[in-house]
Amino acid sequence: MKQAKIYRKDILAGLLTEDGGEYRFCYENSYLSSKDAVAISLTLPLQEKEFVSPVLFPFFDGLIPEGWLLDVALRNTDISILDRMSLLLLCCKECIGSISVVPINKQDY
Asked: Cα(33)–Cα(106) distance, rounded to whole angstroms?
C-alpha cells in the first residue's frame, strides 16, 4: 500500500492511497470543517465520502512532471513510467502551485 498526505497551502487537506490497484482520496474532517476549505480540484469537490478510482485521479496524474524532468526521475530510480503513484510520491512534494504530496512512508521515496 502506498499513501500520501495531500496538503493545500501547507494545510493537510486529505489522504491519497493506492492499494491493490485501487486509488482512494478522502478529505480530512478537520479540513472540511475549516471555513477556509477549498476543493483541491474541480474534479474532487469537498465531500465527506471518499473518492475511489481504478486509475490515479487525473488531477494527481497531472502533477507528475513530463519531458526531460520525468526522464531524469526515471533514469535515477528503478520506478516504471507505468507506476504513476510512485512517480507522484517521488516528484511532487514541492510542486508548483498550492498542492504538495508528502509520502507517509518516506524511506521508500
From this structure: 28
For the question of whether the overall pTM of this predicted structure is more than 0.85, the answer is yes
Bridge partners of 11, per DSSP, are: 8
CA dist., res. 28 & res. 49, Å (int): 10
- As for how many domains the chain has, the answer is 1
Q: Domain range for residue 75?
A: 2-101
What is the structure's pLDDT at 93?
82
C-alpha cell at 96: 508548483
Residues 81-107 have pLDDT tens digits of: 888 999 999 888 887 789 999 999 755
Determine contact, residues 12/19, Cβ cutoff 8 Å. Answer: no
End-to-end CA separation in angstroms for the chain: 13
Residue 80 lies in a domain: yes
